[in-house]
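Here is the promised in-class demo. Please do not try to memorize the tokens; focus on the logic of going from shape to residues.
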């Protein structure tokens, strides 16, 4: 029996890969008996921050490439995302509840997966620990005691508003540069409206953080108020950039807030890129300064929470096993990969490595010419200043330096990555089943 602790993206990927191939799995999940501060659904694979799995562009976006690699390896996350996707232009966004429900059904329907509802308080000697960035107290302390302390940073989620409370007269629909099917609702701001919004944002009352928390905010989930504090035009060149968008009169707005569907029905929308640590009342006051949101009903406010991760270069091997303890694996964001898709990847890879060992197959880590291999090797590479890493072309092994056209270079890197994934797939025990 393979014990897997945690039924998030990584834990479910590992459990499904193993269980669907006939390995007996015990999946331990503390919900619904106990919840972390950021979780509220009893379902597995609850998406806490955004409902977007980022770009679906295989040939020009690193996360899009990673998704295709996972599809070819039989990822249940990718299958769930395709079944529950909502319109989001060139991105792969999902209906959160439908996504979690799909994975939960798949896990519970597998006869080889036995779900145990309890809180894991001790570090197991073998199996896969995939308890995520919000690992609960007792287990967190056990991990810290075993490996000499843990690392952590703080990230934030964005507010969600009711669709029928948006003032559509102050919006226009369309995807940036016309890419996609016009799924985003764009909320334009004039210069005066933008400057008033930024001023209010900077003056708004925030939830008090300790000094070490302020230093450890992850750049990929930077609160919008922190971004605004870097300069009055920072948001206009980032989250609120109007480039590639034209209003109803055909002209480019001064700034734009984009809204993205949270569910297939389109009854609620996420404020794209507006992760925040403002107090709830301040969120309503400040975001209501945007003309389209003057009377918005906030269904969920943004929150900031702790993300825990290991000093993986010191603790883990590139196959996600613990150094000196080959039967114990970690997976998910606790390993230092950052993002939904990246977390799922680590769980799938950990499951594959366990499966190969069970079947006496020659186990190997994918080469760093593919995103799965590059991220696997990143978490284990010597690094004095280790920090969480998203999928990006920079982590891939070098090559094609003579190609100056960036699009062409990315296409070549993606082609080479998928060739490596196909090669790696054939090394997995029972590869024909994938």
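The designed amino acids, position by position:
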């Amino acid at each position: 029996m393979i014990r897997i602790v945690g039924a998030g993206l990584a834990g479910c990927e590992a459990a499904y890969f193993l269980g669907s191939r006939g390995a007996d799995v015990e999946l331990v999940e503390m919900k619904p008996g106990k919840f972390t501060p950021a979780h509220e659904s009893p379902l597995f694979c609850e998406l806490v921050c955004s409902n977007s799995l980022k770009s679906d562009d295989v040939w020009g976006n690193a996360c899009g490439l990673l998704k295709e690699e996972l599809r070819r390896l039989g990822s249940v996350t990718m299958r769930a995302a395709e079944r529950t996707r909502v319109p989001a232009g060139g991105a792969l966004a999902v209906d959160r509840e439908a996504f979690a429900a799909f994975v939960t059904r798949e896990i519970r329907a597998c006869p080889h997966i036995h779900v145990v509802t309890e809180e894991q308080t001790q570090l197991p000697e073998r199996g896969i620990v995939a308890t995520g960035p919000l690992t609960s107290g007792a287990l967190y302390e056990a991990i810290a005691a075993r490996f000499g302390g843990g690392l952590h940073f703080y990230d934030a989620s964005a507010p969600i508003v009711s669709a029928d409370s948006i003032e559509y007269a102050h919006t226009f629909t369309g995807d940036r540069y016309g890419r996609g099917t016009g799924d985003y609702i764009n909320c334009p701001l004039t210069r005066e409206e933008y400057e008033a919004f930024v001023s209010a944002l900077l003056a708004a009352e925030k939830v008090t953080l300790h000094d070490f928390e302020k230093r450890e905010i992850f750049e990929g989930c930077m609160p919008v108020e922190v971004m605004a504090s870097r300069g009055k035009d920072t948001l206009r060149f980032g989250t609120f950039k109007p480039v590639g968008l034209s209003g109803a009169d055909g002209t480019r707005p001064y700034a734009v807030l984009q809204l993205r569907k949270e569910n297939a029905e389109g009854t609620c929308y996420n404020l794209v890129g507006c992760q925040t640590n403002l107090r709830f009342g301040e969120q309503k006051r400040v975001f209501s300064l945007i003309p389209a949101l003057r009377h918005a009903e906030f269904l969920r406010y943004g929150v900031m929470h702790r993300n825990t991760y290991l000093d993986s270069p010191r603790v883990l091997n590139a196959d996600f096993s613990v150094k000196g303890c080959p039967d114990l694996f970690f997976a998910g964001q606790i390993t230092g990969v950052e993002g939904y898709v990246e977390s799922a990847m680590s769980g799938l890879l950990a499951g594959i490595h366990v499966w190969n060992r069970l079947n006496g197959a020659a186990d190997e880590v994918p080469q760093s010419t593919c995103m799965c291999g590059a991220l696997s090797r990143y978490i284990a590479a010597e690094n004095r200043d280790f920090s969480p890493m998203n999928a990006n072309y920079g982590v891939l092994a070098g090559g094609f330096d003579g190609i100056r056209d960036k699009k062409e270079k990315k296409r070549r890197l993606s082609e080479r990555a998928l060739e490596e994934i196909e090669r790696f797939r054939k090394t997995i025990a029972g590869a024909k089943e994938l």
